[in-house]
Amino acid sequence: PREQTLAVIKPDALEEHREEILEHIRKGGFTISRVKETVLSKEMAEEFYKEHRDKPFFTQLVEFMSRGPCMLMALTKENAVEEWRAMMGPTDPAQAKEVAPDSLRARFATDILQNCVHGSTDRERAAIKIHFVFGDIRSEGDVAGD
Length: 146
Ligand code: CMP
Prior knowledge:
The structure is a single chain. The chain is globular. It starts with a strand and ends in a 12-residue tail after the last helix. With 146 residues, it is α+β, with helices and mostly antiparallel strands. It has a 4-stranded antiparallel β-sheet with strand order 2-3-1-4, with helices on both faces. Adenosine-3',5'-cyclic-monophosphate binds next to loops. The site of adenosine-3',5'-cyclic-monophosphate has 8 residues, from loops.
């Protein structure tokens, strides 16, 4: 079935590798249904990665993700969650280079922290993250004020 995943081009890769990564996404048959380029606040980065808050690298991760612009995307395709994870490759680029040399992390990641891209692990989390990043589509016309 067609499904959506939340994909992020992280701050280490956006400046240098934006075009190559977007090219991969298009050639991979994904539709970029929604897109937002922004600098995450620390609070947003903490919320985004709250599943990892007890990990020893959490502080570093939040610092890294909020240090410059990210591109956040809802990608649509058949099997999007799994396909995007395959395109990214393993978390650690050293491992990616061995097992998936054509993957984005093998080609563009700096290290296990600054690993160029993110993708949701399953459909349920993808839906939660897409809602967190893009909000409720029905409220988009609402005007804040008064
Ligand atoms: P991501 O797939 O976005 O999910 C969690 C992120 O934490 C991961 O990519 C890396 O950016 C980071 N990360 C995971 N493991 C480590 C680690 N051992 N040391 C530092 N950062 C890590």
